[in-house]
Amino acid sequence: MKDNTENYHLEIIKCPECNAIQHGKVVHSTPFNSYVHFCVECNYIILESEWQQVKKVFVVTDADENVIGAYETEELAKIICKGNEEYCYEDHYVNKNEQM
Q1: pLDDT range class, residue 8, cuts 50, 70, 90
Q2: What is the C-alpha to C-alpha distance for residues 32 and 38, in angstroms, rounded to an integer?
Q3: Which end of the chain is more exposed for a tag (fewer CB within 10 A), N or C?
Q4: pLDDT band for position 78 (50/70/90)?
Q5: Minimal CA–CA distance to 79: which of 57, 93, 64, 60?
Q6: Please, are residues 94 and 55 in contact by the beta-carbon 8 Å criterion?
Q7: Dihedral, CA atoms, 67, 100, 74, 62, nearest 10 degrees?
Q8: Is the distance from CB of 18 to CB of 7 less than 8 angstroms?
Q9: C-alpha span between 74 and 100 (Å, rounded)
Q10: Per-residue H/E/C for the chain
């Protein structure tokens, strides 16, 4: 039996409706890959024509390194951290080859 992980890959995407950053599953199918995802925040159905892959995210964590959220801009990460002494953030490139 074939390993199911070979039938898809994950991409970091942004919901066009609520701007939530999340993993989207790209299903490998013939003749084209399938890009359909339900937003985890607002349940909007993201189709291929609206698929917005994010290349860099700012991940906010608490003192115990639990992820609070992922944001597309540093400004948003700073807003979330403001007033929360235990929160910090750092940038992450989705594809290491695309670092500037």
Answers
A1: very high
A2: 19
A3: N
A4: confident
A5: 60
A6: yes
A7: 20
A8: no
A9: 15
A10: CCCHHHHEEEEEEECCCCCCEEEEEEECCCCCCEEEEECCCCCCEEEHHHCCECCEEEEEECCCCCEEEEECCHHHHHHHHCCCCCCEEEEEECCHHHCC
State the chain's maximal CA–CA distance in angstroms.
Answer: 52
For residue 25 the two structure tokens come to 């599953």
User: Using CA atoms, how far apart are residues 2 and 75, in angstroms rounded to an integer?
Assistant: 44
pLDDT of residue 7: 93
Q: Which two tokens stand for residue 60?
A: 């906010």
Across residues 40-52, what is the average pLDDT? 95
Q: Are 11 and 36 a contacting pair, CB within 8 Å?
A: no
Position 61, amino acid? T
Per the CB < 8 A criterion, the answer to whether 39 and 15 are in contact is yes
